[in-house]
Structures
1.
Amino acid sequence: MATSTSDKQKLIGLTFNQDGGCFGATTKNGYSMYNAEPLKMLIDDCFDGGMSIVEMLFRCHYVALVGTGQNVVYPQNKVIIWDSLYKQQIGEIVAESNIKAIKLRRDKICVVLDDKILVYSFSEAPELLSTIETAPNTTGICALSASVDNSLLAYPAKETGGIVKIVNLAKLEVPAVRIKAHNHAVAEISFNFPASLMATASEKGTLIRIYDTDSGTLMNEFRRGSNPAKVLSIAFSLDSSLLAVASSHSTVHVFSLMCLQKQHPRIGTTIERYFKGDVSFLRLKISPTMSTATVCKCAFDANSESVIVVCSDGSYHRFAIDRESGKCVKQTYSFFIELTK
């Protein structure tokens, strides 16, 4: 089916893969996948009625899709396991209600509904392994570890008052780690790659907190700002030395996590220190200024040398980190939505 440029520019969803190396976008005509650096379109698959959610598994050609509901074949309560190489469906999961988010790891599929998370095996015939009750979760908040060694899932607990629970999907008999993360409801959760650390933000959006996933201990607290804002995305660098936080104020704050090195040996011991001061940060401005309805997602490149931001207006921003000066320089501003394969 032919797709017009104006149709393509109506983005529905955005997501990075587990290592930030590529990202996906959904539209009313299907979905596209892009290499993050250098920016390049990788896949452009069309579906009648469009897709609302795409979730990738690293660079594997299997992706999970949820339709917009405009086509009865792709309702909002069905996960399509799609082979993007051979252009065919290889499996599906039908849920009892509309799906809010999907998270993938090599052995699990987590399907997020309004008040629960369904955990399935990742196979051509997915088997339901567990059902986890959550707080009302209309935006699909949760984090799933991609690490082979740490099968953790974090989610807003059914209890009220900013509680997060972390469960080990490989040891479901072990009680979840319970964390009183914030006074307000949790708005964003993210793991570092080994899933040894978890970052959270509340609906107020002024504080970012870092927790040890084993013990639930608060490791550090960063202030994004004094004025409330909607936190849109939180991303650790692959080496766990930096944390990026994108907000509705058209900003991305970059925090140094070097202060955690002595406290948390699992982060690593050979990371070069980028910034002076353990809790200093950089404030990056997304320009032109986004509208309040614009969503943006952030990630780091593989070497923790750049911050990449993609927005639902189709824009792509790349900021290079200058290690000597402790500053970021905007190197790239373009529109990924205008690319063709």
2.
Amino acid sequence: MRKVVLCGYYGQGNAGDEALLVTLLQMLPSDVTPIVLSHNPQTTTAAYGVQAVKHKSLDALKAIATANGFVWGGGSLMQDVSSLASPIYYGALMKFAQLLGKKTIAWGQGIGPLNSAIAQWITRLCLKSCKAVSVRDLGSATLLRSWRIQHFLAPDPVWALAGIPLDQDLDFPHPRIAVNLRSHQTLTPEKLDVIIEALKIFQKKLGASIILVPFQDSQDGAIAEQIYQELDASRAIIRIDKPQKFKSLFEQVDFLIGMRLHSLIIASSAGCACSALSYDPKVTQLQNQCSIPGFELDTLPRDSAAIAQTWLQHYEASQHQNSSDINAIKQDVQQHIELLSLLS
């Protein structure tokens, strides 16, 4: 068995990044034994039954040194919007593995934004030495073409996430409207108030149940609680401990109003219609790729009634949507498996 270290934003309680890890584990060749670098190794091992070590530790370097391969496991690891620390940390681990002669793969990456010259240099240096590279969006592919780095473009790997049953059935009347909002500078208190009022109007027009679904409780939980307190009609907050259960949840939901990229991907892959509230270019790119309607938070209207009416139009149109685009995406995402076969 070949040992391979998996590196990503794992063990931080973010359902999207955990979904990337689960999908990566699904796709690994059968002769590969994974070692996951995790913020919370005990939780990762308990959840997925794999070996895990602390992500910023001597044990992480030992794991890389004794492994046969190293994988950047999906997501936007190489970006400097939050800070320069991210590309320095992930780049250092990748380059360490390369200097030791390990097989290195960048899998399902979203590259950038890279605003600083040093972040661009680190990313380019690492990717040029990878055995194989896959990216999940056209913007990343365009950047790599400009750097003359060989790669292939395929949909985000989470499109292939397999679901597992929820611990309980959803006991709410249809239509069921899921809502995922996260804290972000573009979601100001004033805009949140407008969205909550729009939800009230939308819910009343449809006679719907509102199901609030935090993807990372530290960033989404307080907003979900606020919305719950301000809604009067049928509503609930559902906190989920494993990303695969979101797939099962969205299979039982009629419509999602979502901010997070992976809430929209998991819902769409489960056959749940969506309307996006985009705060990031990666969300806008997904909307364009999958014809997902919605709003840009930067230019969100101040008229709650107008937003609710637009959501109603999106919902009604979704009852007649063609699933051929989604099916094509699910076929294309299998290319990520071919990339990982190079680890064997």
3.
Amino acid sequence: MITILPLAGVPEVRAGDDLATLVHEAVAQSRATRIEPGDVVVVTSKVVSKALGLLGSNDVERADLVLQESQRVVAERTTSTGFTRVVEAKAGPVMAGAGIDSSNADDDVRLLLPHEPDAEAASLHGRLADVAGHADFAVVLSDTSGRAWRSGLTDFALGTHGLTPLEDLRGLADTHGHDLAVTVRNIADEVAAAADLVKGKLDRVPVAVVRGLDRRFLHPDADGSRTLVRSGPTDWFALGRAEAVRDALGVPAGSAMSVEVGIESVHPETVTDRVRRAWSAAVLPDPAGEDAALDGADEEWSVTCADPYVLGRIAARFEVALAGERLVAELTPNPGSVRVGIAQPRH
């Protein structure tokens, strides 16, 4: 039977604190009483960041700080408070805002994720092993994130040590004798999410002990959480809908040009605003765009240019950019111009 035990005795963590000692003392004061062989100690990454003093500079705008803590931008939107970006964080996962966090911290504090969370999990495991008197346990650093196609937030494994992150069941037979073709269980994320059921976000319980997990999942040389991040050919969603189109047109997400073109809003926008943004995406990256002009409003527009080749080129780029805005364009060529009728798809 799996038991999840909250450690409520961890005090407010400050930069330079010995987190292993704080966790060990909290274990002794809890129902867990001690770290037993086979336990998984799940620690909220926030307290690791606090102990390491990983703070973002208040002299840097939050949007710029997100870019600094990112490998690449996956999607971006304009909100009432500025830009929100989903990024591949330097810590590894794809998540909103690079995981920069100000909750449960002073007003002027912006906590950053460790760039090598598996190494931090290993370091914490080593220090905990010293005070616990044995190393037969695992450590998971957890963080919180949303998931594509699902509402709400859940905890996931940002860093791991001593826990096999994935269980590959492909090739094994199910209860009906059929071979499993795609089933790979994410054990690390399941453990992190389970621990959050007793940690929570409002009760200031940053650590939990998961006891009773099948011992086959614990191994001192297990791969870390980096193996959980899909990248390259396995990442089918490297860019968002709008970002993929704009990137193909030469407007990379997170760039100064993206800001100049304009970034789609989470709030309702007029067709005219979306058309104007599509036009900017079509012409600004293309030097030939300087010779073309757009006129019109609402659903009726006209692209003009004296050079017929440039006219065709820009009109084609405009049609693609409009598709990125979820607008359907009907192009009708005329001498020296292209009429562009705009419609919104039903879906």
4.
Amino acid sequence: MTETDLRPRITVLHALGKPDGTTRYVDHMIDSAPEELKVETFSWTEALFGRYDVFHIHWPENLLRGRRRGAGALKKLMFLMLVARLRITGRPIVRTVHNLDPHEDGGAAEGALLSLCDSVTNGFVRLNTTTQLPEGRSSTTIPHGHYKDRPEYQCSVPQDPTRLLYFGLIRPYKGVDDLLQAFAELESDDLSLRVVGKPQDAGLAAQIHQATESDNNISCRLEFLPDTDLGEEIAQAMLVVLPYREMHNSGSTILALSMARPVLVPSTPVNRALKDEVGPGWVYLYDSPALDSETLRRILHEVDTDRLTRSGEPNLSDRDWGTVGERHYALYRELLTAGGSKSRARV
């Protein structure tokens, strides 16, 4: 009998929606899970009445917010019911700290519930070693996995040595307006800027469209892109620019690096550590609160200088999803063992 045969089966309910055909974090959680780990996706029915061993939270604010009037209040009530059930039944609660705080303020009631959530969490998962957690709280570091093995991102489209790219959801804190202004001030006919992704609102979309009308070197595709289309956009880029005004962890950064494309990101403890991890010539940093034209000009010169000496691909060896899945399984097993018998949690 092997060690694997002796490992208990564990069911984890992730606070993530079902896969929708595009690559999301939930796909990684499902695909990386070892044989003994059963992954369930979130519904309030499953959370409140289902049979599972561990509840794993990712973006807790998403459990509390509703698009329609009254929906937010109902979700907050259901969240309190869920916390009560988890505490009574002894199910461990795990939270992956994707962001230090929500990007948009949800008000005092939401803040109080998020504090409650953290206070009852049994184990925190940090995606990097720089994330600060409350003193004395149990935590483990499991890096965000890479995308190198995803077939959607295996592209043969040639790189355009003049193209800068922003991709991802377009929200105010992501600084796309700063990038548009910085690029326009370069006044360079030798470069192009491509912006792809779905804007949060019509105002952001109008601002980007106006920039494309004013500068023929700026183009956009303002919608949610299928993975294969997104892969082709990244493959064509000489440099991916993510001019966020605030950034902690970024799956977009890891995706660009997985496709061997250099990235320009704000200088944060996380990104400085990532720069050291992946090796020289892949992660470029800027210090100012907002990206400006002089910084962009300097970085472009550095990217060009590093082009001949840059390694074939960045070092992402610690971000294999099989390893990520095993580390999650080990954490769940540890918490279940510490909390008593598994059968207690399945009530």
